[in-house]
Amino acid sequence: MKRSSDRILVGTRKGTFAIDRGAEHEWRPSLLGHAGVGVSFVARDPHTGTLWAALGHGHWGAKLSWSRDAGKTWQDAAQIAYPEGARYLDVPPGADPSKTKPTFKAARLQKLWSIAFGPPGRILVGTIPGGLFVSDDGGASFALNLPLWNHESRGGDLFQGDGSGITHWFGTPASESGEFAPGIHSIAVDPRSPERVLVAISTAGVLETTDGGKSWRSRNQGLVMDYLPNPNAEWGHDPHYLELCSGEPDHVWQQNHCGVFYSSDGAATWRKVSQPASGVHFGFPVAVDSEHGRTAWVVPGKSDAERTTVDGGLFVARTDDGGESWRALRKGLPQQDAYDVVYRHALDNSGDALAFGSTTGNLYVSEDRGESWHAVGHNLPPIYSVRFA
Amino acid sequence: MVKVELTPHLFTFFPDLKGRQLVVEAATVAQVVRGLDQLAPGIGFYICDERGSLRTHVNIFVGEDRVNDRQRLTDPVPAGSRVYIMQALSGG
Hints:
The complex is a heterodimer.
Chain A: E1 7-12, E2 15-21, E3 27-33, E4 38-44, E5 51-57, E6 61-67, E7 75-76, E8 87-90, E9 103-106, E10 111-117, E11 123-128, E12 132-135, E13 143-144, H1 146-149, E14 183-189, E15 197-202, E16 205-209, E17 217-218, E18 239-244, E19 252-256, E20 259-263, E21 271-272, E22 282-288, E23 296-301, H2 303-306, E24 316-319, E25 327-329, E26 347-350, E27 353-357, E28 363-366, E29 374-377, E30 383-388
Antiparallel strand pairs in A: 1-2, 1-30, 2-3, 4-5, 5-6, 6-7, 8-9, 10-11, 11-12, 12-13, 14-15, 15-16, 16-17, 18-19, 19-20, 20-21, 22-23, 23-24, 24-25, 26-27, 27-28, 28-29
Chain B: E1 2-6, H1 9-13, E2 22-24, H2 29-39, H3 43-47, E3 58-62, E4 65-66, E5 82-87
Parallel strand pairs in B: 1-5
Antiparallel strand pairs in B: 1-2, 3-4, 3-5
């Protein structure tokens, strides 16, 4: 049995919670901070132990918060703001960018969506409207990664001029205001070489840097879309979440709007490994085993049209063979009248343990790789993120 | 001299301001926000976004008059005014 971390950090619509391991199979939730505030993501920097929370204040905007005493006290961290002159091409939902006169929008931070940790001192934050912010001084300051912001797929450098006038980055309504703009929700740092980073964007696809963010290229070969005439187009994909295997970083997974995709060559090519007959197709999160790149877990939902459990039964599916076969893991999870939705950051694993939380405020933990589950809480606020500390 | 009244919600994040009389030197609403940010670094980014525009669900009143220019906060603030920074009632 591989021991897991003893603490789970949970970001919810109404604050940050800690779930601490007690006696056997007993995990105790407690409110850790940010009471009443939306917390889209909370995670622990493995190098320093600092906790980082991405807040979405209803009135006061998105703010980064940190705690250097394991959550006893929290302070505003250095804040993330788009630099003067940062603009992006605004594409209304459904518009064809090649036929629509471009309109430019001044960039304003709408949401802090994901946080990742690189080598000691490096912290990466994904935001809406599509900026990746990086700190190389332990979070004392953050700067917008310009090569990604100015990427040709997005119309080029709009600081210097009007670029190509065409963007292939569409939007997501996931910010609090619901404004339609691109969002970076996944940041996967290669532990072998932290200069290699994959990011996934709703809605554009996957991009990779191998030089620490100086240049980026698309990593969407093999992805297929159900909603464009050319399902194999380079851009326009909607990855919901991407994660790589830390022990075998060439094994990369994504739960996409259009199915589950797996790559065993570092995201150079993707293969669709959905199994709709088993319910494995639509969903938001994916978790990858830290040692075995062919092992992953998803929490399937029923189609993009419904986005709830499959037929009222909540289950997790695991593959141990790179998606060739999937097994539904239902023991301990409700199998009737359950309509939970599990968001993209709300499933995580550590050792042999897994945890996930739903927008219905249910939180479940497994200590046997998903074979069985027990409920930690049923009345938490809507859950946005679940991360082992 | 302009006196500033804040919604109590902001004291949650800036507890040192609670109970203090907040006075700034300002001739425009933008200068009021800048003056406040000097008293409590960071509060300006709670009230305005990084382009200097008033956040959607925040209101500022000069006396009883709601601010007109939410983008650049150029509304004049006569000496001796009282400025109120409130949460907008946005539904509920």
